[in-house]
Amino acid sequence: MIMYALGPVLEKTEKKVERYVAVLNSDELSDDVKNREQLNELDKYLQNLRYCKVETGRENITGSFSVPCRVKGRENFCFLVDQKKLVFVDDSGQVGKHIEQEAKHRRWEKPSTGQVLCDFLEILIEDDAENLMEMEAFVEQLAQTILIQEKVEHFKEKIFTFSGRLTIWEHYYEQLMDMGEELEANTLHLFDDECLRKLHIFIARTERLMHNVQMLREYMFQVQNMYQAQIGIRQNKIMQTLTIVTTIFLPLSLLAGWYGMNFRFMPELEWRYSYPLIILLSVGIVVGCVWYFKRKKFW
After folding, report:
1. pTM for the whole structure
2. What is the helix (H) or strand (E) element at residue 30, kind and residue range?
3. 2's torsion region: left (phi>0), alpha (psi -120 to 50) or beta?
4. CA-to-CA distance for 138 and 286, rounded, in angstroms?
5. Terminal C-alpha separation, the chain
6. How far apart are alpha carbons 202 and 207 in whole angstroms?
7. Mind listing the pLDDT tens digit for each residue in 33-53?
């Protein structure tokens, strides 16, 4: 367990203090009898850490986070906050890094657990804009590849995977907005005016991030439609080529069928120059068709 004494700055301590911020894992919560009695509200979150939510009780506020990772997986943890303490239960190790960052870079004129929680929420999303830019760069690269190569390997798998990632992030920001609005209600008066201002900024930033995700989804649909259009154009070119070839050889098929009939009285069959004439006629038909299609820009 890592404990910080709450003052103008967070200072690590091993002593018991009146106001503190603590980060512990699920095993430490279960083994510590006193914490078990004080923090029994967190039990339900430990059993089901799959989404972000917050609940306001009579004396404290409890909640859980399920933060998507950039590559794969989630970071799950829960918290409890009241006037004297802010406790996180985390097995991933990320919360400890965020709180340590607050301890190094944050100072408060009116220190409170609410201030620490609000700054923690800000740290939680501070790098998300960069993450969305990387996702946008992926879609742009995919679009450029379509324009250059016309065919992208495993395109459907890439789009399906990317769409799933966007859905996860969109739901995450939506849940964060709900959390921010619940905290902003300030039912237990844990937050002063400065905290409420930070919560308002947090909600606005989260909303912008969610809108960016939605714009990325629309951009992805445009790229998908562009890919389908490229496939359609390529198929049309193939059909056009097949149609032209069929049109060129259709008169030749007529000649072959006409003189392939087994009639007795066909004067051309006994004429000396009938075979060279058919050859010249066939070549003339092919050349004429090709010239016509080129002139009309069909090919």
Report:
1. 0.78
2. helix 26-31
3. beta
4. 49
5. 75
6. 9
7. 345 555 566 666 666 677 888
